[in-house]
Design brief:
The complex is a heterodimer. Chain A is an alpha+beta fold. Chain A is built from eight helices and ten strands. Chain A has two domains: 115 residues; 134 residues, Alpha-Beta Plaits, CATH 3.30.70. In chain A, helix 5 packs antiparallel against helix 6. Classes of the chains: A alpha+beta, B mainly alpha. The interface between A and B is large, with 74 and 58 residues.
Amino acid sequence: MVPCEGRYLYGVVVSRKVVRLGPIGIEGGEVYTIPYEGLSAIVHDCPAEPYQSLDEDTVKKWVKTHQNVVDEAKKQLGSIIPIGFDTILKPKDDVTSPDQVVKDWLKADYERLQTILENIRDKDEYGVQICYASRVIAKQISEESQEIRKIREEMAAKSPGTAYLYKQKVERAVKAEIERLASDWFKDFYARVKRHCDDIVVGKTRKADRNKVMLLNLSCLVARERMDNLGEELEKINNMEGFSVHFSGPWPPYSFVAKPVVPVEEEAK
Amino acid sequence: MNPTRDTHATLVDLLDRVLDKGLVLDADLIIHVAGIPLLGVKLRAALAGMETMLKYGIWQDWDEALRAIATKEYQQKR
């Protein structure tokens, strides 16, 4: 049997007790807590090597399991600092026990963990993506823009060959107008969403579904009592002709615990 | 409008978070500061394979997304 000298980390909660969550971990790992001075790491025992696979479904299954454990720990133990996939601690010598390594880490990182827990208490993360439907918006613009209307009117009187060139001209003008407007939309939507958030992280936009262009990709940290306000704001945006909102969550605050460890004295240098 | 955690609709949101975010334990720094060795943190990129990343458009965004901050993005959009 492979020795389980590694500890796979799921997250950190406020708890003083050893709690057993059952065999809900990755590959059926028994999940339990390792406490240190009022903080507890959620772990399972594993060999001291990362989980690796080139099979997409396997990785997806692991990621879902990872998330399930974080959800379950949150349900049973309250606010959780989620840790990214495949974070494994192991002793560097034969003397230290794997559990001790986890305790040593909690001890070393104690202040930062406390600060993060304070920041995320009673808050959840939500994903907000706002897209526009390029065809709908292009149609609106070509009807509303005077400049484009003028080109179209001129086009009507031209021969098919020249009209083709005019058509390209219209397309270029529409594209330029969308780009100009997109900057205004971005500012407007960003401000409207931010109002309802305790913290916000702007992610890079992803490729959206066909005919849709992602304008904003936001992660929002929101106090529980403010969630309804955010929902209402997003509803308004979602109801705007040509725009759609993807609203996911509540997630553990993955996007708001990601600052790397920088001790104060290091930062000052 | 209510948020969703439906597994189908939010798979990308999930992968994006679990693979790319969450508390970072800086291996080098921890070894340096507290002598705690750490495995696996830097291997997330290799883990899910190129195909998954390309399919979900995560790969291209990987590096920049990690560093994305509101002001920077805001300026880029202007």
